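FORM 7B: Structural annotation worksheet

SECTION A. Query
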Amino acid sequence: LDFDDGTARIKGVVKVIDYVDGSSWPNLVVDKIYFATEQEIYLTYNTHTFYDERIRTQSEGVFEFGGLIPGKYLVFLYSDDVTGGSDKVSVEFEVTIDQFDQVVDLGEIIIDKL
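SECTION B. Predicted structure
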């Protein structure tokens, strides 16, 4: 079976914290918090070295990877690095699906935008 030949799902919601221009780490000032629209989210199955699927969040930051088979998955997306150490940092979630009809809800995921 391919990773997408099942009926399990991984879902969640992405929100963005946007900071005031000119504020910097460690004294960042929050400008607004909003749902991420069109945010790319990646899925890797088992030990694959490249992502298997890439989707974008819908309105209200909602995303869902569907049709999954049991196995280990890595869900990841990118956030701005608020500390200034690099341009982007990876936000990662390791998920194990044990049953064909399982639904894993990652809940609310927060990313930063400078």
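SECTION C. Observations
The chain is about 0% helix and 60% strand. The radius of gyration is 16 Å.

SECTION D. Sign-off
Analyst initials: ____
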